[in-house]
Automatic annotation (TrEMBL):
Homotetramer. The active site is at C381 (nucleophile), H510, E512. InterPro entries: Class_I_gatase-like, CTP_synthase, CTP_synthase_N, GATASE, GATase1_CTP_Synthase, P-loop_NTPase. CDD domains: GATase1_CTP_Synthase (cd01746). One of its GO terms (molecular function) is ATP binding. The gene is pyrG. It comes from Candidatus Portnoybacteria bacterium CG23_combo_of_CG06-09_8_20_14_all_37_13. Allosterically activated by GTP, when glutamine is the substrate; GTP has no effect on the reaction when ammonia is the substrate. The allosteric effector GTP functions by stabilizing the protein conformation that binds the tetrahedral intermediate(s) formed during glutamine hydrolysis. Inhibited by the product CTP, via allosteric rather than competitive inhibition. L-glutamine binds at G354, F382, G383, M384, Q385, E405, R465. It catalyses: UTP + L-glutamine + ATP + H2O = CTP + L-glutamate + ADP + phosphate + 2 H(+); L-glutamine + H2O = L-glutamate + NH4(+); UTP + NH4(+) + ATP = CTP + ADP + phosphate + 2 H(+). ATP binds at G14, V15, G16, K17, G18, T19, D71, V241. This is CTP synthase.
Amino acid sequence: MPKYIFVVGGVMSGVGKGTATAAIGKLLQARGFEVTAIKIDPYINVDAGTMNPIEHGEVFVTEDGMETDQDIGNYERFLDRNILSDNYMTTGSIYQAVIGRERNLEYQGKCVQVVPHIPEEVIARIKKVSRKTKADFVLIEIGGTVGEYENLLFLEAGRMMHLQKPEDVIFVMVSYLPIPSKIGEMKTKPTQHAVRNLNSAGIQPDFILARASKPLDEPRRNKISIFCNIAKENVVSAPDVDYIYEIPINFAAEELDLKILRQFKMRSIKKDLQDWKKLVQIIHNPEESVKIGIIGKYFKTGAFTLTDSYISVIEAIKHACWFFKTKAQIIWVDSEVETSRDLSLLDGIIVPGGFGSRGIEGKIKAIQYARENKKPFLGLCFGMQLACIEFARHVCGLKDAHSTEISPKTKNPVIDILAEQKEIINKKNYGGTMRLGAYICQLQKNTLSFSAYKKINITERHRHRYEFNNNYRERLEKQGLIFAGINPEKNLVEIIELKNHPFFVATQFHPEFKSRPLKPHPLFREFIRACLK
């Protein structure tokens, strides 16, 4: 029988439930078990696709085209597994399914109620994932924190599963222990209150991961054990780390994997974290460093700079740097205020995905600078579209070249929308209707892209509505733009390159979604190689 591990948050959000879930999964995987992970988000949105990335962070796209929370990306990177759409659910998607079933008379005339029918739908989805993946362990992360009314129905689902088979379900709370600067003492009271809130939902945590800026000491461990009614050895220290890939090593040192197996009355004789330990050694002992500029607009919120909007891009850069035993110095360049002086200090430039008109001209200037000054450049999705516009304007002489997303009446729509997408927009049906998920791309031989992938047919993940306008392909090609990758099903441009440039590659897809810490993405790897040169 599969075992289920619910991971919940205490005190505050953003303290690392997703990475803790992924790290636990990695440890159990290293012990020879098959592991999968599910993310439950409590918002009413049906998926993450319609949310502003500054508010919620990156939208991660699965292989089968689901727009999800960024934690799914962490699961994929840690477990080296594709996590599919069944592994993601929201309050909105659950209610939508239950109401749809009620409209189809599938409840056979019953009064459909919040309890038990909503938790039953959650449980049914969890068990569906268990069957499809044939996993030994299914980890279920519940977004937000305990005590929020939004989470009660998901906690109820966990309580019901535990009631049915207590030997198959455990609960892990990730809770924050503040150290007020004027007091200088780690405080356990917020965690005690969080556990009481969880108790009020009928759940007692089996483990508490004590998140703090410093390691947990014995007096605090004892206090949490006594006041939270939990075995002392099951209070696990989870201090801040510089790199999230250290977390499995820290948890292994606390024997968290062994303690979980004991809780389930299970054994394992295998343990293989050698590759992971080597990676951490490389991370902490780089031989070189490289400055990579990300030209974007989704990282300013008031007086704070947030990086969650581009988390997969950041991780893909790091993975590629570690391949060369190199440290990545990531420089955030605001596309609304950047200058050539800012760009001259960089070893490479990345223009990532995005939407809307704000900061567009700054990104185009950065692309022009990279092209003219032989600076290694990687464009991602919107970055490819803007690279085509820049080339059309400054090399082909089409001064008003633009995208119809930004300038609907442009006379030279180098980037335009497909006919089927026009119908969707006219109906204002935006959610889940872009070109999403994995599509085939055929590579031209004798290109940088082919030399990186070393094969002709590849699949990569997409999230966009606008495409390169094939009416301009011949004109741009004559001026030296290389169309290195094409989707054969619809004859759509997937990759562009430049000749006589150390590295100028841009993709309509998002290669960052498929990068893994021990397997950097080929395009990011070759981009970093060029930056190091």
